[in-house]
Design brief:
Elements (H helix, E strand, L loop, with lengths): L1 H28 L22 H9 L4 E2 L21 H20 L11 H7 L14 H10 L19 H4 L10 E6 L2 E9 L7 E8 L2 H8 L4 E5 L3 H6 L4 E2 L10 E11 L2 E7 L11 E5 L11 E7 L3 H5 L5 E2 L6 E2 L2 H5 L15 H18 L2 H24 L9
Parallel strand pairs: 6-9
Antiparallel strand pairs: 1-7, 2-3, 4-10, 5-7, 5-10, 7-8, 8-9, 11-12
Helix pairs in contact: 3-5, 11-12
């Protein structure tokens, strides 16, 4: 009888244990950062009410505005495949950047394929420069600072595999090799017998001309007119486990920001104002990967910590012009119109991003020799190849002796 009673009591506890476990496990889905976010403290969540001038200006804005309705949203992502990775900050930041690049290219008259920025390139290389902790969290500002300093290639350079810089800890002290930024794998004149992988060190990079943090309904709506933004959100158990569709109004008072999403617009339904946002958990979640949440009351702290960026697509002009200065190859872009390329700033390799090691230098020497053999006339090719080869060998030796200036994680 006692045993039966104990079993019955244990069975009654199972739903409670399951719910607690689900909440704890769910919290990990939204892990945003491992370090103290200096710009946030409890008072930040209590945003001041909008001023009279801000209220008046918001009244002049459209009742509904959505970049997806204008065909300016790129594809959605899933940060959690093929394995779990707490890279929501990178997905939210880059999803917004993808859409802003599309908007800018549309204004410039370019109607080509969407640009999907290299998530994996950042996760591999950003942490080695002190920007984020990779799959253990980070902030949109980490991503935009990396884009501002170094730029990011599109995702054809490296597919997303939900890993990060930690795979390089033993080899390169956490700093990525050039293959961690951009890579190609195929047969080449260097090795005609079998396909092999090699770094691509010169490619079109997309940069952040500027970026900034904003907060509050008024600032968010004004900036959304320029393009989607990225906002932190406090993922409550209700958001993680219960949301499927509709306008979310979370009543848990949960305010611990632990996730980042992209805000694409705003609207109103049955008198309820809302934000429309894109998550990074796949299109099978929510409203085809999106969700709506009440607007104007800082629900789940979604109006407390937002970022925007202004894209720089000037590298596209190198290769997309009707008479381009640069053309592409299996090794990366290289001068096509010599006189035109000579008038432009040189295209830098990835030595400022990746670990400066012999493999990259040898590859760059072979690449430059290959370019020289294509671009010069037969009568001068022998002498030029000798001079270029000698200069590159000496340059590689000098670079090898140079001290590394990379910042690595403690």
């Amino acid at each position: 009888m006692v045993a039966a009673t104990s079993l019955y009591a244990a069975m009654r506890l199972l739903p409670l244990i399951s719910a607690a476990w689900t909440a704890l496990a769910g919290a990990s889905y939204c892990h945003r950062t491992m370090r103290q976010r200096e710009h946030l403290h409890p008072s930040v969540y209590q945003l001041p009410p909008p001023s009279e001038a801000e209220v008046s200006e918001m009244a002049t804005l459209p009742a509904a505005f959505d970049w997806c309705d204008q065909g300016m949203c790129t594809s959605s992502w899933n940060q959690h495949i093929p394995t779990y990775c707490g890279s929501c900050f990178a997905h939210g930041a880059l999803s917004s950047a993808n859409d802003r690049i599309k908007i800018l290219n549309h204004k410039l008259g370019y109607r080509g394929p969407d640009v999907m920025l290299g998530r994996q390139s950042f996760l591999n290389c950003g942490p080695g420069h002190g920007l984020s902790h990779g799959c253990k969290g980070g902030e949109p500002a980490d991503v935009y600072e990396f884009m501002h300093q170094y730029g990011l290639p599109d995702e054809t350079c490296l597919h997303y595999n939900a890993t990060d810089y930690t795979k390089y800890i033993d080899l390169f002290n956490g700093t990525c090799p050039p293959e961690g930024y951009c890579i190609n794998c195929m047969k080449t004149p260097e090795n005609l017998t079998a396909p092999h992988c090699f770094p691509v060190t010169k490619m079109v990079r997309y940069r952040a001309k500027e970026y900034a943090r904003i907060a509050g309904e008024h600032a968010m709506m004004k900036e959304l007119l320029n393009g989607p933004i990225t906002c932190g959100i406090a993922c409550s158990p209700q958001f993680i486990n219960d949301y499927s569709a509709g306008v979310l109004h979370d009543t848990s008072n949960f305010t611990h920001i632990n996730h980042d999403v992209e805000i694409v617009g705003w609207g109103e339904k049955d008198g309820v104002k809302f934000w429309r946002a894109r998550n990074s958990w796949g299109t099978y979640w929510g409203e085809n990967g999106f969700f709506r949440i009440v607007r104007g009351i800082n629900n789940l702290a979604i109006e407390s910590d937002c970022h925007y960026m202004v894209p720089d697509v000037s590298d596209e002009e190198l290769v997309w012009d009707e008479s381009p200065a640069y053309g592409g190859s299996i090794y990366g872009i290289r001068p096509f119109d010599i006189s035109k390329a000579a008038k432009l700033p040189p295209v830098n390799d990835t030595s400022a991003i990746a670990w400066n090691h012999d493999k990259q230098h040898r590859h760059e020497i072979r690449l430059d020799l290959l370019n020289a053999s294509v671009l010069v006339t037969p009568s001068t090719s022998g002498l030029l190849l000798l001079l270029v080869g000698t200069a590159l060998v000496v340059g590689a030796w000098l670079r090898k002796r140079r001290r590394s200036v990379y910042r690595t994680l403690d």
